[in-house]
Amino acid sequence: MTAADNNASRPRGRVVTFERALLVFAVALLLVLPAFTSDFFVSFVLTQGLLLGIAAASLIFLAAYGGMVSLAQTLLFGVSGFVIGNAVTTGGSKGLNLGLDPWLGVALGVGITTVLAFFLGAVASRSTGLYFLMITLTFGVIGFYFFGQVTTFSGFGGINQVRAPDFVGTPGQFPERLYFLALAVSVIVYVVLRYIARTPFGLSLQGIRDDHVRMSSMGYNVWVHRTLAFTLAGFVASLAGVLFIWWNRQIDPASIGMGEILALLIIAVIGGINRLEGAWVGAIVFVMVNNYVRDVPGLNQIGLTEARFNTIIGLIFLIIVLLSPDGFIGIGQRVVRLLTPRAWHTSQAPGSDSGSGPSVTAGSRSDSGSGSAETTGNK
Amino acid sequence: MTTTGTAQILQLSGIEKAFGGVHALRGVDIDVAQGERLAILGPNGAGKTTLFNVIAGDFAPTVGTVRIEGRDVSTAPARTRPDLGVARTYQRTRLFPGLTVEDNLYVAIVGKERGHLRIFKNKKDRVFRERAARAAQRVWLGTKLDTKVESLSHGEQRQLELGMAMSVHPSLLLLDEPASGLSQGERQRLTEMLLSLEESVTLIIIEHDMDVALSVADRVIVMHDGSVIAEGTPDEIRANQMVHDIYLGRTGSLE
Ligand SMILES: Nc1ncnc2c1ncn2[C@@H]1O[C@H](COP(=O)(O)OP(=O)(O)OP(=O)(O)O)[C@@H](O)[C@H]1O
Ligand SMILES: [Mg+2]
User: Fold this and answer.
1) Which CATH class is domain A12-362?
2) pTM over the 0.95 mark
3) ipTM of the complex
């Protein structure tokens, strides 16, 4: 539906086709991979990677298209899990133990999380840049203590032995079913978010990312726009929370603590915070390192034992950030660029139809000169 | 200022604006009739851009009222202006560098129309994109529709700045130094384009380039230090000695 349809001379086609091919190939690979790998790999690398990827996608969506780096996505992910835990569990020592149907639990988890995201978004969307980051971090920390201290809902011991629908089965029963479900949700989330990015809502969100003052003068209510983007991202995070609780069968405040908040940010950055695909790339790399670092020969000898896993993630993080601000996806793009020698790369980065430019820093743009109204409150 | 005649599209009465101790505007009264072409001149720091910001609703005046088509909009926020037919450009370009030329124009057009929050595409989008393409042509960017704004030249960005304001067919168009940073040839082209605006469009242009300002305007206002110090036709302003002393004489851009 883009204007590219009317104008055949536009050089966009080739890059998009190549990108699509790459994505289709990735999904095809993910479809057949379980046939060749162990249950452990399917569950602990692929399923965990995909569900963390969905959570990271909610962060990247806000960052890449909205210029808002939110540290509250882990909380929203967790709220969904906690709501489901409270709703479906029976006989636990803590929590509400409502014993509801698991599917009703999903509806409640997703619904309550989305509504919560709306209100948190309404508060956070008043600010931008570093302040937005700090406000959302505060939400995350408050959430951690809330579930730790309010034993009506959880307590630090968490909610255990959470039931999943029969389709998902008991833990370890059908690891592939949960995996394919996570894959399906990932694909849908990716396609829908990419689609929305090209709609009036999505394009104007990117306008707000680049210059919200101009957007208000063109008639947009920036605050409403940001709030609804945050709500949408909360919805996506809640889906990851559903998959998480079915995968883990247990959730406690540590699942949404400071370490997890940072882990999600690290996933987004190592994957590439400016592109949606980066979410899943980052998550799978993260989970692989998490699971396989201990097997790398020689690491033990130089003192990098399992307990120092964070050092390794930290090093990878550092290397990626130094090598490529756009993470693994950025490295991939450069390779593609080298392989397709055409002059138009200078004017158009591969896949620029996503509209996600080098955006995260653009959010803090300020024009302190005479044309600026950013410092005034009359919006 | 009690007149609310419908012919007056813009009425500014007693506008003052202070930023802390800085008095950017010290009591400005200006009426603008529909279809008028008004140029605002004045040295740096005279308060010209601040006046635009007040008209456009970026901030409310400290004292005074802004009426657009008779309605008091002094404290109404900037986002209410497109519905009143107002569009503006900025002295320092404010574009969306991460989007293409076409998408910049598209977002401008959607801003004026309903459906900001629509999360699906429909037939309207094709119409909007055709309008965007036409708006791009009008500012000589017809071949750059798919170029990301961050890779446009400075001059092209100035053109797009103008194109975005014009794409919504405003009835009151506010241009803040549209010629700055343009070459002589581009200024000529810009002047011709502004002269070809539909008659019903009211234009207020802040411009340091006398050739552009005085050939486009049928009335000129000179501001200095937050006040209007002279007003007249382009010829009267050319002949005004005080204006020469304060402003024009220094820049030497008059004959
Ligand atoms: N947002 C703001 N905050 C504080 N002071 C401001 C702000 N905007 C303008 N000013 C001050 O108000 C005065 C008038 O500035 P303004 O930008 O309106 O002048 P101008 O006539 O547009 O000048 P120029 O020709 O340089 O664009 C200046 O002293 C400026 O520093
Ligand atoms: Mg100015």
Assistant:
1) mainly alpha
2) no
3) 0.91
